[in-house]
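Researcher: Here's the sequence for the chain we discussed earlier.
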Amino acid sequence: MSRYSGLDSKLSTAERKQMLLAEGAAFRADMLASRDIVRANLNSKSVASILLGRITGIASSAFSNPINLKTGNLRTVLPLLLTGASWLSRRGTRKPLLIGATVIAAIGGALFFSSRNTKATTDDE
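Model: Thanks. This is the structure I predict for it:
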């Protein structure tokens, strides 16, 4: 029995070599395309939006119930805090974070004033 079984055993050595070279070229092309996709998606704006989404989720779950603040587990939040601190120390991430904080503050201010106006109109009636 030969070392190569299956369809490859029916091919000559030169044909197998050409097939392997073609597979290698396709693999390298796919790796380059994948690398470009990862580089495009790992810019500071997308990382800031992902981090902002995670922080928002953690904050909403932590502050949804006041009892959770007393029984909160620091060990679960500490890795996120350390990651955020190291991420903030990079120079290129400060501007997107500042823009994100400004947008969140503007949305929060708009919601605050709209709820205040709604309460004032219901009290007047």
